[in-house]
Design a protein that fits this description.
This protein is of the alpha/beta class and 262 residues long. It has 2 domains: 181 residues, Rossmann fold, CATH 3.40.50; 63 residues, no CATH class. Helices cover 44% and strands 18% of the residues. The protein is built from 11 helices and 7 strands. Strands 3-2-1-4-5-7-6 form a 7-stranded mixed beta sheet, sandwiched between helices. Strand 6 and strand 7 form a beta hairpin. The longest helix has 21 residues.
Amino acid sequence: MDSEAITFSFGENWRSYVDTVDEGSLKRASSAIEEWLTSDQISGRTVLDIGCGSGIHSLCFHRMGAKQLVSVDVDPKSVESTRLMWNRAGSPANWHVVHGSILDDDFTAALGKAEIVYSWGVLHHTGAMWNAIDKAASRVEKGGKFLIAIYVKGPKYPEHLELKQSYNRASRLGKKLMVWQSVAKIMRDRWHMGLNPLAWNEKYDRGMDVYHDIVDWLGGLPYEVASSDEIVAFCTERGFVLEKLHELPEGGNNTYLFSLPK
């Protein structure tokens, strides 16, 4: 990254998104998790959610029976958002929401280890992706699972990086215009496909909606990428075994499920 100031707050975007979360959102988010870990694999287990964002996935882990759950984020607004989810769950004593950085050695060590460490689409936004993956992996108990998603490396990286830098340099109005340019394109595409263009703000399988996903994509700095071969090699060197991999084109996240043998 260059020394240019980063003005994007993932947490502000998540805080806005939290107000839209309903039971349908939670059902979709739970189903997305269950594509990787079944309720039986989560129930009675300890879970660490690194970069908890809105808190929607932490709430899903709680509802799926996690024995102990720790939700961590460096952005105060994400912590606020996740605490709203914690309140929604009845402020359970076995779910802790904490503010801190996975890159902080003392903070990370104090988290202890968990049977499931989850970090979806987060570690590539730390400004030190490989260090962040290493720190997150170190929190997995022997016999545990490591579920992460990382942006895909490809030739459009410079273009994507410049887009994000341009968004963060823009005025408040400029940012809104960039978002609505993206929305207009989606509406045009829907029109050409014979779909209702006014119904553009669909909710995704992971619970996110189109509008907040656009803001997240445009603003998302820091921004790093990795190939699946690089991630698998990095984790294999640390004793992990790849169980499942779902690959997407550049601009998306590859998702990885690793296990750490006893």
